[in-house]
Amino acid sequence: MAVTSKYLVIYFVLIIYFLGIIHSMSSRNISSSQFRHRRSYGERRKGKDGVSNIKGQLSGKPGVFVTENCTVVLAQIGGTATLPCVVRKFNSGVVSWIRKQDYHLLTVGLATYNTDDRFLVEHVRHLQNWGLLIKHVQLSDAGLYECQVSTHPPTNILVELKVTKAKAEIQGAPDLHIRSGSLLRLVCTLQYSTETPAYVFWYHEQRMINYDPGVSVIEGRSSSILHLKEADKSNNGNYTCSPSNAVPASINVHVLNATAEEKPAAMQHANSSSSTNSIAKCSLLIVTIILIPVLPNT
Ligand SMILES: *[C@@H]1O[C@H](CO)[C@@H](O)[C@H](O)[C@H]1NC(C)=O
Ligand SMILES: *[C@@H]1O[C@H](CO)[C@@H](O)[C@H](O)[C@H]1NC(C)=O
Ligand SMILES: *[C@@H]1O[C@H](CO)[C@@H](O)[C@H](O)[C@H]1NC(C)=O
Ligand SMILES: *[C@@H]1O[C@H](CO)[C@@H](O)[C@H](O)[C@H]1NC(C)=O
């Protein structure tokens, strides 16, 4: 009996342990799938591991900057980029932004020194932030920017701007086969996007169908889902997902005759299960495999 209860204890400890792993795996999966999470303040460190530098503790000695050196910022074409430069309190000195590629002085203090009025300083006094705001980001804006503080001697950090081209993607493209009378469900997701689009228009061939009867569109932060009730042959054709600020995507929908017993191998479902579920399944499999040698002894 004592042996049995010992094994039972081990059994439950293992179950709790693996449930913990499954939980951490699925929650990590969710956060990494949320692209917008990284938005424009996506801080990544080049070179040395920056674990101790995240809050600006530069290996013990307090630096002028709170913002990490070599911070990377992502912004999509046409969007707004915010390059951070948070400094510690200093008595004198001015913060300037310089574009590295041509050593162009962009801003000094709160003043913009550039004919290009897309560049602005976003100063938050009590936070000591001297972020550089770049509006209507262009591909040519990509590169290194220097935030310089005129201490003695002057000191600076670099911020890298990476410019992305946002594009739409429809799950199941290029072809989707559904049965006549069933729900047509199209999922459009945004790739390389840093900003939520103002709108997403859906087109059937050349016609916008967002407000058609039987159609509903569900907008997410980086996705748009089209539902069309009881599809029939007239719903055949090319569907386009066109976000306001991203390259559109298209899919060919084939509505199959409900009476015909045709079941093409290429039958696809737009709402197939997510990868999160498969990871959880994998972990459950590991639990059973490990527990099998324990059980026969009881
Ligand atoms: C940041 O990195 C650049 C290039 O590696 C270097 O020149 C600069 O001194 C660094 N700044 C600080 C505050 O460490
Ligand atoms: C579907 O329509 C879009 C927009 O009209 C077009 O760009 C695309 O080439 C079409 N695709 C096909 C396969 O016809
Ligand atoms: C679809 O079914 C209808 C009858 O329900 C039939 O008249 C038509 O020929 C069928 N079409 C195809 C392509 O099988
Ligand atoms: C979508 O998922 C639901 C249940 O999750 C299922 O009943 C339905 O058949 C699916 N539709 C398609 C087109 O895969």
Automatic annotation (TrEMBL):
Statement: the UniProt record of this protein carries the keyword Protein transport: no
GO biological process: one example: synapse organization
Transmembrane segments: 7-26
Entry GO terms, CC: neuron projection membrane
ATP-binding found in the keyword field: no
Keywords assigned by UniProt, alphabetized: Membrane, Transmembrane, Transmembrane helix
Stated name of the protein: Ig-like domain-containing protein
UniProt domain Ig-like: residue ranges: 62-150, 154-252
Pfam name, any one: Ig_2
Organism the protein comes from: Brassicogethes aeneus
